[in-house]
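Data card: per-record layout.
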Amino acid sequence: MAKTDPYAALRFKEFNIFLLVRFVLVFGWSMQFIVIEWEVYSLTKDPLSLGVIGLMEIIPAFTMALFAGHIVDQKEKRNLLALCIAAFSIISFGLFLLTWPIIVSDWSTQTILYSIYALVFFGGFLRSFFGPTIFSLVALIVPKKVYPNAATWNSSTWQMASVLGPAFGGFFIGWIGVHWSLCIIFGLVVLSFLILLQIKRKPILNPKIGEPVIESLKEGVRFVFKTKAILGAMTLDMVAVLFGGAIALLPIFAQDILKVGSEGFGVLRAAPAVGAFLTMLITAYIPISKNAGMKLLAAIFGFGLSIIVFGLSSIFWVSVLALFFSGVTDGVSMVIRQTILQIKTPDHMRGRVSSVNSMFVGSSNELGAFESGVTAKLMGTVTAVVFGGTMTLITVITTGIVSPSFRKLDLTKDLEEHNKD
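The structure for this 421-residue chain is written out next.
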């Protein structure tokens, strides 16, 4: 298979099925998150309530992450993912019921709010299993020599779905309302489960089945902290996501600052998806392994600049353009980071390494939402967004200065070794 083949991973049937599952699942999950954000803010008109949504998901996702990684490394991946999706469908159906006037007409606003938070909390518990399971499964579907190409398509699919989902969520809120939007989400979750069954069960590659939990967790954490490339990529992205969480405040921008309603809200959420799609096309054809460290630093720096511009803008099309470039830069960052993780992680440790990554980066999305909600409450919405973007820039500059080894990171040799396998 040619090294320069931009469709190398797509030539494997199960990988195409996997991408479809991931797109549908992430589309539904992210659409659900934004619909619930809209509903909660509509109920409370309090920016802090948006932060609480993130907090409710981060607590179980963070605390369960390492234990989930241990279980993933011990279990068969296809069936474990199917079990997670089935549990997720229960959450989606529960949210559908909580927005049905027939059921909650006699409930107080506080009761509805707390019930939503409870289901989001359960979703955070499930999410601690989703990341490690998906990360481990994709490595069992394609050979090592196409990992970088698989990472490109995998990351771009996630990026597109994670922004297109909320974008359509914004449109659906205006078209059919919150309640029926959640009904569509439930249908998408069920669809992803049915598609997943087209992938065959995979072998368990961990030679230490039955290993004590504590020893297993220690091994995973030690590996991450001694592998500088992985640790650097995780840390950089964690801080960028933590302080660049302006997306969590989009309901406020749409309703109170730009005054564009739910339709404009959908456009704002769609803008990064267009940038992510462009990233997918470019990174599939242009290798990112050479000078990966500098490319990652540049991408996150560009992301921080985009967030600052968005925060300062009071013009709708400027805001859309800023979010478009945030999607481009975030997409590049994601592809490089996933390539580093796939190449540097041994097969038998993928669940645990991905769990540590979720603690660093994945959970930062929700923690970033909480940080944005708190800072918006204390500083004001615009100041909070500009502050977050500025902290991202400071982090990139500091990392580039104090870590020359990461700045010089190049994955070319690693890829050459995989191509020999």
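Known properties of this structure: Residues 9-210 form a domain with the Growth Hormone; Chain: A; fold (CATH 1.20.1250.20). The mean pLDDT is 84.

See the next section for split statistics.
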